[in-house]
Fold:
Amino acid sequence: MGRGGIRRGAGRPKGQGKYNEPTKPIRIPESMISDVMKYLSIKGYKLPLYASTVQAGFPSPADDYIEQQLDLNQHLIKHPTATFFVRAAGNSMVGAGIHSGDILIVDRSLNPKSGKIVIAAIDGQLTVKRLSKTSKGLYLKAENDQYQAIKINDASDVVIWGVVTSVIHKV
Amino acid sequence: MGRGGIRRGAGRPKGQGKYNEPTKPIRIPESMISDVMKYLSIKGYKLPLYASTVQAGFPSPADDYIEQQLDLNQHLIKHPTATFFVRAAGNSMVGAGIHSGDILIVDRSLNPKSGKIVIAAIDGQLTVKRLSKTSKGLYLKAENDQYQAIKINDASDVVIWGVVTSVIHKV
DNA sequence: TATTTAGAATAATGTACATTATTCAAAAAA
DNA sequence: TTTTTTGAATAATGTACATTATTCTAAATA
Structure:
């Protein structure tokens, strides 16, 4: 028979689920379900960034010295729809830390101001150069003495594709 | 009255939805709903990677010259749970393309073999050096003549934190 | 005949609900 | 009294279903 009566405080406690917080069902295209699951499982690729002055206990980096949690995509790509990557070739920009084979992150929505490193198409060939505005005009300069600066004028077949924001170098 | 009868072929056509493919409701923790939505809206941060030899029509990069679609996180981080970032300080590794202020991607799950660039804690201070095994023993070498190699032995207070896989350099 | 209209058909979408999991405590049993 | 049992309470979770959107065509109309 009944063992009834109120059970104040009973019930499954909050925050016991997979994510320790309430969830909502969101429709996900089938082809991306596994990607989204992965994304969720590692909390959106947010990984710890340590300052180089860490003096933590070993062997595991201690949480106390985490500078911030970083998601590479969010950190490096401010305008996803206007951003693309280019693989660098040649050594004309080693002075700017750009080596052959590096992946350059290029933002088309940024204004190509003087001093910025840009991706330019010169006669249909992609190159990475530093934009330089002087009293003599607008130039594309290599960061390497062996290369000559290229003057930009109305006659020249030069199109700026975008501004380089970061360089990814595999070691 | 009835205008009945079968309507073969009637109905909303497939692939008319937001994603042009079938969807399934997946539960998402509330704090990540906006992140996931963003992730979906740009198809998982997969952006085009162009080869440097592109000779496309202007001013927009043509799809024909896309080398591949790249997601930085997936491309650079193979072991999310074992990976962290460290901000580099000092110029001891400029020869390897590592400059002060760069963000290093470090994988703790990789074996620190000779020749690899590693993050090591020496007397509690983090440094980035190249691991070098010679007949004389194991060394941590800077890629810069002004720094001296550090010999690793049982007595030395050196712990390898992980192997550097990539360098991110802001320009 | 040509045009319009009112369902019929079917995909997309968000959410209510049934189910499952978990914890609590009153009542029963020891 | 102490221990065990059993239903109450409530969160987590996946999915069925009601709703909405869209297109098609037979019948009605001009």
User: Anything to note?
Assistant: Chain A has two domains: 30-76, 80-168. Residues 2-18, 22-23, 25 of chain A lie near DNA strand D (CB under 10 Å from a C1'). DSSP finds two helices and ten strands in chain A.
